[in-house]
Fold this sequence. Notes:
The chain is an all-alpha fold. It has one domain (5-96, 106-209). The protein has helices at residues 5-19, 24-36, 38-69, 73-94, 110-122, 125-134, 146-170, 172-181, 183-209. The longest helix is centred in the first third of the chain and has 32 residues, at 38-69. The relative contact order is 0.23.
Amino acid sequence: MLIPLETLAIFIPxxxxxxxxxxxDMLFCLGQGIxxxxxxxxxxxxxxxxxxxxxxxxxxxxxxxxxxAHPVALEVLRWAGIGYLVWLAxxxxxxxxxxxxPAQTKRSSAFRAWRDGIVVNLLNPKIIVxxxxxxxxFVDATRGSVLxxxxxxxxxxxxxxxxxxxxxxxxxxxxxxxxxxxxxxARSFQIFTGCVFLGLAAKLAIDQRG
Length: 210
């Protein structure tokens, strides 16, 4: 199973751009870092990563089974994902005054922050919907194991997210002050992310027609 370099060249920067956009997981790590220190902020980021990999594994197992039973399912899911990416882009462009207040958290030990990070991630249904919309766009059943490819892409997405969340959790005090002062920063990220979603959806749609 070999993933082409040109596929990775699109996936990796896109994944990093999405990971840099403030969301519930990032704000949770920020809140833990502010209230309980850098160690708890980093532990929270690894908890988020653990939950994300559980989401990815479950989604990958389901997708692999679906493709095995119905080979056309991957193509259908790709087009559904393209539509979802367009919907996310429109939502990012239309959103106003994003709430970038750090998530309310209790003061935690590193273990508790890690555990709570898992729970926060697993209880967010938007994560698995996004995973099912984004990753299958890059999976090619002709290259071998669908599950293997899904897990590789999920791992890449997760590594980038963990690195960024660790930076957020570790430097929570300073970052929290910057974010709390400027909603313009979060709005800029929203617009940038919307452009990424829209551009990716357009490219994938054109590629599928080709």
